[in-house]
Amino acid sequence: MENLKWRKADISYEKQIHFSKRDFSFESENAGEFITKSLANAYWFFISDVDGDNCPFRPTCSAFLLQSAKETNIFQASLMFFDRFTRDMNIAKGHDHYPRVSAGYYYDPPQNYTLNQGRIKYLPPAFIVDDE
Amino acid sequence: MIKVLEICYKGIRFSSHKNHFQFCLPYTFIPLYLYTLLLIISSSAEIHSQTEIEKQFNYAKKLYDEEKYFDAVTEFKRLLFFYDGDIYSYESNLLTGLSYKNGAKFSEAIQHFTLAGLNSKNIDEVFIARLEIIKVNILRRTIGRALALLDSLQNDSKFTRNADEINYWRGWSYIFSDDWENASLSFSTIEPKHPLALLCDSLAHDLYDPTLAKTLSIIPGAGQFYTGEYVSGFLSIGWNVLWGYLTINAFMEDRVFDGLMVGSLLWWRFYTGNIQNAEKFALEKNLEKSNSALRYLQNYYIGKKP
Amino acid sequence: MRNFLTIIFLIPLAVHPQSSSFDFHSPENIKKFADHLFCEGDYLRAIEQYELINENLDNDTIKFKVMLGYSELGFFSESNDFFRGINDKSIFYPDAYFLSFKNQLISEPGLIIAPSINSFNSFQMKSFSKLTNISMLYEDKFNISRENFTAPFDAEELNSVSTFFDHKVEPPYKSPALAGLLSAVIPGSGKMYVGEWGDGITALVVTSLFAFLAYDNFRTDHTTRAWIFTGLGAFFYAGNIYGSVASAQIFNARIDFDFNNGLELFLKQQNYFLPEYDFCE
After folding, report:
1. Rounded to whole angstroms, how far apart are CA atoms B54 and B67?
2. How far is C58 from chain A (nearest CA, A)?
3. DSSP secondary-structure letter at A17?
4. Any bridge partners for residue A58, and if so which?
5. What are the chain B neighbours of C42 within 8 Å (beta carbons)?
6. Cα–Cα distance measured from residue C21 to residue B49, given in angstroms and rounded to the nearest whole number
7. Mean pLDDT of C65-89
8. Which of C183, C209, C236 is best to mutate for the A interface (most A CBs within 10 A)?
9. Which of A127, B91, C117, C159 is most buried, with most CB under 10 Å away?
10. What phi, psi does A58 have (nearest 5°)?
11. In the Cβ-directed half-sphere of C107, how many Cα atoms lie within 13 Å?
């Protein structure tokens, strides 16, 4: 009973921050991952952070590639990336297709694309995901 | 004694003794004494029942003070369910509302503050209950509602003498809607050097102007320098110089297709990106600044808080 | 006259003692308060109060109300834990037994394998058949004729139930293999087959563009550029085949999701075939 009751809440005056911070670390489990991570870091630092907010997806295309490489292997990850890239180029994407994160971007995690039916977590387009 | 009573009571009706009345007079009041005595005893029982209610109220209050808000609500509800007098209705509803507020159950809180207002015994209690509703609206950032309620308090002649307090909470409403300039104005109507007015004023001056950041970025990098993001500023300058040079160069050499491609796909992308970035930095840094001010207010400011 | 006076004098004395020793926490008053909370929909507080007096009163109604309250609050496992403590001689046992199925279906949807019980009334018996039939839809193996499946249902439920049956027998899935194959023949067509027209057209345009660029550069002997375009084109081509298979899988996941959602909505609308309990007049 006691743990079903609500308790004193921690009400913060602060506003929630939706800006996502990049993870620039070089942590990786194998050489392939190290290479992709280094490329991604360089891409983030020199290009992505200065060429504006162009990616409508979360995770972003580069983060998608990194996570795919973690989930699968470098070859499968690149296929997943090219598919994502194609979907990104589609000018009529989305409004009734992808769920969204709270900041408004389309939520499109690599787990849905590993070709493992059991790992797919389908969410309807109207759904708002809490975290990225 | 019994003998005397017997004589007297029978005597009242059947007496022939001439001193009988004088003799018996004190005894005729015995039933009255007894009655009064019983009445006193029973009203002390009434006092006893008063203490039961008081005890229940104090129990609930104790739970509230111990921050056991769920249980406090239960006990206040129990009191209000059985007790239909009006001594505790206002306070019980008010404390129930505060308990709900502390558990972040804001709509329940407002419901009970409204009940407290309806059960208030004087105009001060009405004011307090209505302020609590306003504070909940500030806390959950329904600022439009908070300001509307403050307006209605201000326009009510009953609360003319509470003008300072109304302005104080108006200031807090503006703080929570990130409008530090208006917050400062509201606090300074109470007192020109009000500490919160000074705080809001200094923050308002400290914040970046996102429009200015964007406008400055017409010259690539300038907006980033304005917000103190020098690395990003230099990178923006670098890319824009590079793609700008390649684009113009292509056109100079009559390679129109290359010029269009580099210009539209690359230069344009980095140029608009530079403007977007400058605005983003301004907004990000402003959010960090206002959050640190809010953190300070929540943890260190001594004074009334929502 | 004397009697009248006596009565007049005694009235104030008689009124006072009634309120004299009011006990907020006596079992009777706790029960009254708990009933009030339950009717207000404040179930958790009501349950807490009922649990305070449960041992004193040992009341079947209270036990059932506690179980119902937990279920209403969404604490289904607590509700079912409580069910285990309800005596099967209790008049509410059939209701509680039935409620435990609802809890089970919401918390872990699956086939109901529990038997019916003799103490079910005819309404409960019918609801039980409905619920067990519906619960079959959650199983992968589905082996029942339409007549048997729809038999227990009423006319107004029949429409939804037949739709569920049809869907279960022949789900409108798209084949991932076919989607992949189509995209291998004509880039993007697999995506179109799945219903992703925009993605399909984009894939077709992009792959064709790179194929053309590669061809054009080979033709004009720009071999390096040609090979770069060939490589990129190949990746877009392969990525699209891969993506078509993935899209078909996601499409199928969507079909399952919508089916389960529809089923849940239907059960909610029917309140899991439970009767309306009215403990508050």
Report:
1. 20
2. 19
3. P
4. A107
5. 77
6. 6
7. 90
8. C236
9. B91
10. -135, 130
11. 17
The residues, ordered by sequence, that sit 6+ positions from A55 with a Cβ below 8 Å of its Cβ are A61, A88, A105
Opening angle at CA A6, ends B306 and C109, nearest 5: 135
Distance CA C5, CA B185 (A): 73
pLDDT of residue A21: 75
The neighbours of chain A, by the rule of 3 or more Cβ pairs under 8 Å, are B, C
pLDDT digits (tens, 9 = 90+) for B203-260: 999 999 999 999 999 999 999 999 999 999 999 999 999 999 999 999 999 888 888 9
Whether the ipTM is more than 0.85: the answer is: yes
| Residue A21 near chain B (CB below 8 Å) | no
Number of H helices, E strands in chain B: 16, 0
Q: Is the dihedral of CA B256, B262, B268, B271 positive or negative?
A: negative
Give the Cβ contact number of residue B134 at 10 Å: 25
Residue A25, SS3?
coil
B146 to each of B160, B171, B306, how far by Cα in Å? 18, 11, 11
What's the rounded Cα separation, in Å, for the pair C176 and C248?
A: 5
Separation between Cα atoms, residue C93 and residue C113, nearest integer Å: 18
Residue C53 CB neighbours (<10 A)? 19
C263 and C137 Cβ atoms separated by less than 8 Å: yes
d(CA B238, CA A49): 13
Q: Categorize the per-residue pLDDT at C16 as very low, low, confident or very high, splitting at 50, 70 and 90.
A: very low
Look at residue B4 and tell me whether its pLDDT is greater than 70. Answer: no
- Rounded to an integer, what distance in angstroms lies between the CA atom of residue B285 and that of residue A17? 11
Window from A26-40, B85-99, B128-142, B168-182 with minimum mean pLDDT = A26-40
Residue C272: burial class (beta carbons within 10 Å; 0-12, 13-18, 19+): buried
CA distance A63 to A78: 12
Mean pLDDT of B174-196: 95
Write out residues 71-110 of B within 8 Å (CB-CB) of C: 73-74, 77-79, 81-82
Judge: A117–C48 Cβ closer than 8 Å, yes or no.
no
Q: Which residues of chain A lie closer than 8 angstroms to B294, CB-CB? A: 13-15
Mean pLDDT of all residues belonging to chain B: 88
Between vectors from CA B69 to CA B65 and to CA B73, what angle results, nearest 5°?
A: 105
pLDDT at position B37:
61
pLDDT value at residue C73: 94
Q: What is the dihedral angle through the alpha carbons of C71, C74, C78, C83, rounded to the nearest 10 degrees? A: 20
CA distance C140 to chain A (A): 14
pLDDT value of position C87: 84
CA angle B115, B297, B65 (to 5 degrees): 45
Give, in order, the Cα–Cα distances in Å from C165 to each of B208, C136, C150, C255: 62, 10, 8, 14
pLDDT per position as a tens digit, A59-114 = 988 889 989 988 898 899 999 999 999 999 998 876 678 999 888 889 999 999 99
Residue-wise pLDDT for C192-226, tens only, equals 999 999 999 999 999 999 999 999 999 999 899 89
Task: Supply the pLDDT for residue A95.
Answer: 65
Task: Look at residue C18 in the predicted model and tell me its pLDDT.
Answer: 43
* pTM for this predicted structure: 0.80
> Could you tell me if C125 and C109 are in contact, meaning their C-beta atoms sit under 8 angstroms apart?
no
Q: What's the pLDDT score for residue B167?
A: 95
pLDDT for A50 equals 85
